[in-house]
Amino acid sequence: MPKQRSRYAGSARISYGRPVVDNGSVLEMTREMFEELVAEALDRIPPELTRLMDNVAVFVEDEPPADDPELLGLYEGTPLTERGEWYAGVLPDRITIYRGPTLRMCESREDVIAETEITVVHEIAHHFGIDDARLHALGYG
Fold first, then answer.
1. Lowest mean pLDDT among 87-91, 108-112, 135-139
2. Domains delineated in the chain
């Protein structure tokens, strides 16, 4: 079964009642600080869900692919709902959270924290087989 790619670009939605746009300047935050925010967002996922996650790795990259510069997060893999008996000995699914676009669209550290948490939840939801339409209905898309 082929792997799926799901993407999350904040500019495709409204965040906290305001349009998501490039703020014209880049908020300063080191890679290490951003990685810590991603780790904290992962820590806020309920334990009953994290126990169900299987064969998935989370990465932080500075920038998304050049052909999608506003991409905030990307899930690449086979969702849990699509795995069958054939699923064995495969590389982990990959969730990537992109630092650059997040910092460019946020105006404050608090905005970065909130946007990072939304992006992490969005990509983990794809690991569980939740599509963009359902995420949008839940307020995450």
1. 135-139
2. 14-82+89-137 (3.30.2010.20)
